[in-house]
Write a structure and sequence with these properties.
The chain is mainly alpha-helical. It has five helices and two strands. Keywords: Membrane, Transmembrane, Transmembrane helix.
Length: 214
């Protein structure tokens, strides 16, 4: 019974580690795509003149996709992958203590991942609702700022923006992609944190099996 219990416990740990590693790996392509999409927001229709003359929506300068949902999430994903590695450095003398230490660190960095991707999610939503900064008949302005996001479903008023060409569609598509990417990151990090919390609350690492007890 003692050997069978150890085998079951080992399989549970290995399955949890593999699942956590897969989730962490998913964060990497999401982060890379966030960086690419955020960079594209600086160049409407591939033109660089608007970025150099600061004629872009102010929310692109928060670097939500490049820094927070991008670089910072890559760092978080790398650290989580290291923590999931079975051969990671032991911080305690006992295996049980080391597992608890690793689990706690995983929860902390998963929470940081939620914060970073959540920041990108919020800023992207605000940028989407505000609308693009463009040239209208009255000059450069936020043509749809007072619409409360209603312009998103009324394409007939998009012609207010005369320059850059198709900037409304450009912003809607790219901000929507950023919202999707960062939303997926939030979900993944929450799942990882939940998995690690369940290990602590359910006592996966606190179960001590005494030899000889049946």
């Amino acid at each position: 019974m003692h050997l069978e219990s150890l085998q079951v416990l080992h399989r549970v740990k290995m399955g949890s580690r593999q699942c956590g590693g897969c989730l962490s790996c998913l964060l990497i392509p999401l982060a890379l795509w966030s960086i690419i999409v955020n960079i594209l927001l600086y160049f409407p229709n591939g033109q660089t003149s608007y970025a150099s003359s600061n004629k872009l929506t102010n929310y692109v300068w928060y670097f939500e996709g490049i820094c927070f949902s991008g670089v910072m999430m890559l760092i978080v994903a790398a650290i989580l992958l290291v923590l999931e590695n079975e051969n990671s450095c032991k911080r305690c003398h006992s295996e049980n203590c080391s597992e608890k230490y690793t689990t706690l660190l995983s929860i902390i960095f998963s929470a940081l991942g939620v914060a970073f991707s959540g920041y990108c999610l919020v800023i992207s939503v605000l940028g989407l609702v505000q609308g693009p900064y463009c040239r209208t008949l009255d000059g450069w302005e936020y043509a749809f700022e007072g619409t409360g996001g209603r312009f998103l479903t009324d394409s007939s008023i998009w012609i207010r923006c005369l320059e850059p060409t198709h900037v409304v569609e450009w912003n809607i598509i790219l901000f929507s992609i950023l919202i999707t990417l960062s939303g997926l990151q939030v979900i993944i990090c929450l799942m990882r944190a939940g998995m690690q919390l369940s290990k602590i609350l359910c006592g996966t690492y606190s179960v001590i099996i005494q030899p000889g007890i049946i």
